[in-house]
Sequence to fold (434 residues):
Amino acid sequence: MSPVETLSPVLHLGAAELRQLALAAGADDTGCVRLDHPGLDDQRADILGFYPRTRSLLSIVCRMNREPIRTPARSVANSEFHRTGEWVNEVAHRIVAALERRGIRAINPPMGFPMEADRWPDKMWVISHKPVAVAAGLGRMGIHRNVIHPKFGNFILLATVLLEADVDESAKPLDFSPCLNCMLCVAACPVGAVKPDGGFDFSACYHHNYREFMGGFGDWVEQVAESRNRADYRRRVTPAETVSMWQSLGFGPNYKAAYCLAVCPAGEDVIAAYRTDKGRHVREVVKPLQEKTEPVYVIRGSDAEAHVKKRYPHKQVRPIRNNLYAASARSLLRGMRLTFQSGPAAGLDATFHFILQEEGKLVPVEATVGIRQQKITVREGLHEKADVTVRADAETWLRFVRGDTGIVGALLRRKVRVSGPIRLLQAFGRCFPK
Ligand code: B12
Ligand code: SF4
Fold:
């Protein structure tokens, strides 16, 4: 009989015992929740879709050293991210091994990469560690959307172990938020991704910080493919950027910023220096990051481009293409919320209907997109009266949105039909700069 077949289907575990096991494996803190915890309501379907045996989840926190994360030398910060990332994976691995030895089935998805690449550009990671950590009482999300641990602050990385066992006690969420509302994360983010109202410009963060990851890497490959000769390639990509890409491939990808995390003074172990002398914290931690001269990657016409030019004129704006390509009509509609830019939406107040016919499908994908007061809403189905209606062959529309084909030919071939003022459709397009 294989070891797996000897595992009993469901066991009961003491939360205290599980905690001891996790700490012995190297976790700095840990907490467990049953799958029916209300904090996991919006995650449950994905969790069960990935591992249907799940009955409880163990969240693991490993702390990062602060000074390396804070230095403007990103090579130092990235070593700390990668080293702690490997360590939190190792801890989760050890816990699963210990549980397996005791006949309990458990599984440890990675803390970050690798992810399910065939799902790109949709949600390609299997478990979202942040909501599990919050449900397990290990912290709360700060304005910058990272989990802040009450003791270690946001200088932590997370992992989750999914167990086919019932824990006797589910943790309670932390009853206070360690976030101080100091807005230093808002001030430090070079691309303005962290908004003071808790909003997050995913596209801005992703395109800069993840320049050498995922679609950013794809964009570099396309630059190589499109270059006519060496001089043309060097016009597009600087020698330092080529070396940086090599370094990412050789040693683990370079995060370009993470300044929101670097400056955060929250957490019992972190806060004292800030409380004693706020000015010094700003001078020594925030300013060096703000004053750093560095390339900042933005999509032309995006809110991020305007932000860098206004707030950080000494940083070098590097316009890049939007590389979050939608693979289907549905992912296009889902992605609209992530790539919508509020700046170019100023003054626009309109409703758009999209009817996208996919090949071989009987029913088209239909959606209503509203843009009002610089905010976007995307709903499935056709609601209220539209100012503009787009009826299109989905593949043609996706190619147009990616910039692979012009609209005029598609209109002439009636692959795309538009009713309503074209100027409104053009204004809509500007909200999603390519
Ligand atoms: C996707 C992701 C990102 C995305 C989106 C971040 C976000 N705010 O959700 C990007 C690329 C921007 C990102 C950046 C960073 N991340 Co990150 N990231 C993740 C990941 C894989 C899942 C995030 C998640 O759970 N979101 C929560 C869901 C519930 O949020 P949501 O509002 O529904 O959806 C958001 C995203 O999911 C995104 N999204 C939706 N669809 C898609 C599709 C694709 C392909 C992508 C990429 C994103 C995306 O859109 C929303 C944006 O608000 C986790 C690892 C993991 N497996 O959990 C690490 C994780 C959240 N990241 C982490 C870190 C450290 C960072 C960075 C500091 C990276 C760095 N070293 O520079 C920055 C910080 C940016 C910030 N202020 O949030 C840590 C956070 C630790 C902590 N203390 O909380 C995690 C938990 C990794 C870990 N194991 O520790 N990250
Ligand atoms: S930097 Fe300040 S506002 Fe931002 S998450 Fe940390 S404590 Fe909250």
Observations:
- The radius of gyration is 24 Å.
